[in-house]
Amino acid sequence: MAELAKPGQFVMVWCGEETLLRRPLSIHQRDGDRIALLVKVVAKGTLWLSERRAGDSLDILGPIGEGFSVDSDSKKLLMVAGGIGIAPLCFLAQQGLSQGCSVTLLLGATTASQLYPSHLIPDGVELVVTTEDGTAGEKGMVTDLLPDFTGRAEQVFVCGPMAMYRDMAVNKDRLKLDGKSVQVSLEVRMGCGRGICYGCTLKTRMGLKQVCTDGPVFNMEDIVWEEPG
Fold first, then answer.
1. Are 89 and 194 members of one domain?
2. Of the residues 21, 135, 156, 169, which has the maximum number of CB atoms within 10 A of its CB?
3. Which of 44, 64, 84 is the C-terminal boundary of a domain?
């Protein structure tokens, strides 16, 4: 699984007998023949997963989906993480640095206690932090920082809530994103993770797509944000 995994892909994890469906989790980091998953406890399934210990076995399906794409001639990458959206971007940052790219990461959270630990960010990444309440880094939304960084970026990669993507799409001129290659990783509810149930169908300018198999990474311009799914 680690050998095949690409940044932006995910796995479907079975989270105990009290849950009916597997949980989709981004591949967070890769270290040799191991992968890491970043888990936020929100309900029974992720609580069960957080209680696993070294030596326990997990039933995992993956890697799944179409991940991020770094152009061969890109050298300056900008990554934007809203909250738990840091999950797939650490792996992407690892890849970008290994390809000789410079990587800038804008990391946002509601408050300082919800920030991803900076010492786990890959060495070599330029990290800029923002919190909505100003308890760490700049005060405000992480997207507020975009105009200061998009000018020097050749590609932009984003992971966060749908509302953040809609704001970026609507305000792309103000955020200086117009004409930029912007790839977004969608976080949506999934049923099967294999394109069978159509539970994660999304309307795009090329027709209906399944987030699990056609994504979860899409070009921001391709999504019909007026009817997000």
1. yes
2. 156
3. 64
Shared domain check, 156 and 181: yes
Query: Which pTM does this prediction carry?
Result: 0.93
> What is the chain's pLDDT, residue by residue, as a tens digit (229 residues)?
999 999 999 999 999 988 888 999 999 999 889 999 999 998 899 999 999 999 999 999 999 999 999 999 999 999 999 989 999 999 999 999 999 999 999 999 999 999 999 999 999 999 999 999 999 999 999 999 999 999 999 999 999 998 899 999 999 999 999 889 999 999 888 888 888 888 899 999 999 999 999 999 999 999 998 764 4
Please indicate, yes or no, whether residues 118 and 154 belong to a single structural domain of this protein: yes
Edge to edge, what strands does the sheet with 181-185 contain?
138-139, 126-131, 102-109, 76-82, 155-159, 181-185, 217-219
* 86 and 57 inside one domain: no
Structural domain contains residue 37: yes
Residue-range definition of the domain harbouring residue 153 = 76-222
Instruction: Give the whole-angstrom CA distance, residue 149 versus residue 114.
Output: 23
Beta bridge partners of 61: 12
Output the CA–CA distances (angstroms, integers) from residue 8 to 2, 17, 30, 133, 205, in the order listed: 13, 28, 12, 29, 21
- Based on the structure, what is the number of domains in the chain? 2
DSSP annotation of 200? T
Are 25 and 38 in contact by the 8 Å Cβ rule? The answer is: yes
